Records
---
Amino acid sequence: MSHRRTAFTLIELLVVIAIIAVLMALLLPAVQKVREAANKMLCASNLRQIGLAAHNYHNDFGKLPPGNFGQSTTPVAVSAAEAQNAGALVVLLPYLEQDNLYKIVTQPGSGTARGVELAVHRGDANWWTLNLAYTGAQTRLKIFQCPSDTLYEEVGAVFLFLYAENGGFPNMARGTQGDLQLGRSNYAPVAGTGGRFFFQYPAPNPLGLVPPPTMGGYEGIMCNRSENTLGQLAILDGTSNTLMFGEGLGGSGVGQRGTAWTWFGIGGCGTGLGLGRGNVHWMQGGADWWRFSSRHASAVQFCFGDGSVRGVRFGQTAWLGSGMPSQDWALLQQLAGRRDGYTSDVSSILD
């Protein structure tokens, strides 16, 4: 009588498992690449919507939103206590289908039981001292999050405000329980190399440009209490050649993250220290809170003044402020500046 086998032998089972393991090893990188490509497209869509919101704001007010509402001496004197310290993303809320949230965080009232008044030519109060503004700022908005990043991982502190001016970083980072619940952002306005400069300071010149550049010559579109127009951009460097919004991790990309940007407080950030990769230490050109950065493989994505979104390659843009930076660094500053007047070919750092 013949005997019919009804199960795999152990050897056959091991062979099948080995084949499946090999197939998974071959397919996993492809799946990861497809997922990252989708994430990058969604990130670009977020930036495009933010850029379109800025254009719609311009249509209503005849100017682009300021990078932030910080302490100021010009165009009006605003003390530290009177500085609202909100960033451009807040005034764009009505143009991002968040009109109800905008009404809450700017609701008039008395004392601290109200929202913040956002005006370029006058101050109000620090936004986190006002109950409605602080509570509304805890809303998490997906449009401000790059899907390639783990934005809401545990951190020690978040930035209640941060922007670039005179090559420095006025900021306040805090880590109370309420602060850590604040909505975060991967996106920030571009203030040029280091925001507005109120004094003449020479910039590195690895390209041998004539006349030699200055740091102030690389001033960006969205600085502290700025009121720039698209017409000015078109006449000067051109809207398609000037960065308007970019992405960043708001903290270290490796090890303990440490900090994160909040969408309410992130202001115009600078490009003077280059672009950071999300998978290396900041001293080797990695991400941190003072750099535009990303977890994408080769580039940081930016929305340009014309509303288009393109990647700017990491290349050799990273610089720590000493010695001569690379030519990539200089090309990045020309993209970040709105009125530098240089016409170098920047295609080598565009993704």
---
Amino acid sequence: MQILGFNKTTLLDYPEHVASTIFTGGCNFRCPFCQNGDLVLNPGSIEGEDENKVLAYLKKHKNMLDGVCITGGEPTLQHDLYDFITRIKALGLMVKLDTNGYNPAALKKLIDDKLVDYVAMDIKNSKEKYAMTTGVADLDINIIDKSVEILLSGSTHYEFRTTVVKELHTMDDFKKIGEWIKGAPSYFLQCYRDSDRVISPGFTAYGKGELESFRELLLKYIPCVELRGLD
């Protein structure tokens, strides 16, 4: 298992739980606003963590932790993700998986085998603008749609979330997203933040009032819509 970052304790990454966060390397998307540019573009340049040492830490501290968040990069690219999560679950810890949804087969197997307790899936944009937003010209939106359908089936706890970028998202996009994921229990709008770690720095964020307008629109389709990342 390629582990390129390990945050031993977080109160933010796994809603309402104390968790450790594991960062994997590599991604099949190239979202220009991605905050983990090195993990996506240069995973080979990052010194990895020893898998057994990470698991040993989790075992030693399992009574202090509720679970583990596995994020990236894109975790489902890891060929041994299933086995790694199996070892975490054997410790009695819950697992939250962050994913871009471009590997529905892996997602479904993890859910069906009850290896994930919570899934956070990114919705990058409306279907029409997905390829542009992800930086993948030949993206197959039907693959994303399969993952959306898997989560909407309600087989595990989940959330959808979108990092909102002024240059990429409009009110019409959120109307289309709302219609697409209607039936989801919750949807989070994450305020974009520019930094040196972004793949293509220079994008800008909407203000709180504009984000609230998107939220009001989305509440027509989804019962719980919340904002994240505001000062």
---
Amino acid sequence: MPVRSLIISIFLLILLSSCSQKTKRSMYYWKTRFDFKKQDIEFLKSNSISTLYVRFFDLSVSQQGTAFPKAPLICDTLFPADIQLVPVVFIENESLINISPDSIISVAQNVILKIETLAKSELKVSDYSEIQLDCDWNKASKDLFFSLVSEIKKKSGKEISVTVRLHQLKHQTQTGIPPADRGVLMYYNMGQLKNPTEINSILNNTIGKKYLQNAPQYPYELSLALPVFSWSVLFRNNEFVGILNQINEKNIDSVKFLQKQKKNSYLVQSDTVFGSYLFRYGDILRLENITISELERSKTFCHKFTNHEIILFSYSPETNILHNENNFNRIYNIDY
């Protein structure tokens, strides 16, 4: 083979291999109890899930400026071997502004200590390399959040990732860029949850596409987080009452006091106590769920902004849409 042809062949092979990079399969775990049974571990391993992003606690701050962990993870079992752990801390944006700039260092130290305690003492994991900070920061809170990110990064010695909402991607000049190592584009919860005329607040590609249109590239790498859960939203007299995780696409048609009105709307036919909620005659439930085809459209829209990792939110056999292996693989498989 002539040298020129050989060089061209090698170049094409390199190009093809780089374009077909395999998707890294990850999932969030957002329950308050970590209780992994044998079937859970088998599910992760048989489907090549390499990483679990586990919510450790919410960071809340009192009006007096005292930061404390809220609803810390309760660990009933150890973390599965051969799966990478990324601890996640959800930071309440509303209370973040109560932190004094002078106390950022001590807050960062306390966050790191709490993460280490849960990881090492409860889950028996000591070799995690990343911490993720989940906060829907805005112009009012960005300076405090960015300072906290910087301190946690410096004092923990870990890689720091942050979650990035669509509005933070679109309006980078106004919202700023956290001093993290990388980010995760959260492509869900984008609609108006409390609006009774909303169709689906979890995933709306019409809204998502508008945010992504003409959006600038982020200055560092972004993974892609997609939803695989379902819930129902309760309204009374056109007023938002709450979210019902226990009534979802898997069981809503078997709930006897509900009558289907249209595609995703259900009428409460009698006063009923179900779970922790009191339902009244005439209440309306809006079922919100996800289809595989919509997720595939989502990946297409987000393709240019994200890397080769897809993180599904979240691991929960009770409410997710991963009914079979074919659906599961369709969500993850994407040509880069």
